[in-house]
């Protein structure tokens, strides 16, 4: 019985370590009215972001979309931010799968989705608002493309590192 319990505990730890980290947002202080703005936090102060190339060859980042953490491939070849349907729902981005149409062409043919606007994307304090994006009909991971990246002062790739300033 102890061995089985030990194995279950080890499996739980392994699963927990394999999940991407998720930022938590503290509730507003008691007595804060909607008219009052909280003081800026460290998350609002832009800092340089240094991303190491993942074993897959991609640069991965977690950015807040409408205050919800979303995992992205930072894709300097993508014209726009592209969200999976799951990520769009989690970030409260309005879309209607019944309105999907061809929004691009990929190696496998036509890419279907819906053009949308995102209120806010923040990566390490680098905030952009009212960003053009698409919600894709079929996607495994969201892409952080040029509709966000062009709003950052500097994007630089050197070897296996990407720097966003």
Share of β-strand residues? 35-45%
CATH architecture type: Beta Barrel
Helix count from the secondary structure assignment: 3
Instruction: Label the overall shape.
Output: globular
Helical content band: 10-25%
CATH superfamily: Acid Proteases
Beginning-to-end CA distance, first to last residue: 54 Å
Report on the architecture of this protein.
- The protein has one domain (46-164): Beta Barrel (Cathepsin D, subunit A, domain 1), CATH 2.40.70.10.
- Residues 1-39 have low confidence and may be disordered.
- Strands 2, 3, 4, 5, 6, 7 and 8 form a seven-stranded mixed sheet that branches. Strands 1-10-9 form a three-stranded antiparallel sheet, with no helix packed on it.
- 16% of the residues lie in helices and 38% in strands.
- The protein is built from three helices and ten strands.
- The radius of gyration is 19 Å and the shape is globular.
- The chain has helices spanning 2-18, 85-90, 146-149, and strands spanning 49-52, 60-65, 68-74, 81-83, 101-106, 109-123, 126-136, 142-144, 155-158, 161-164.
- The chain has 165 residues and is α+β, with helices and mostly antiparallel strands.
Short summary:
Strand 9 and strand 10 form a beta hairpin. The N terminus is likely disordered. With 165 residues, the chain is α+β, with helices and mostly antiparallel strands.
List its traits:
165 residues; alpha+beta; Cathepsin D, subunit A, domain 1; 7-stranded mixed β-sheet; 3 helices; disordered N terminus
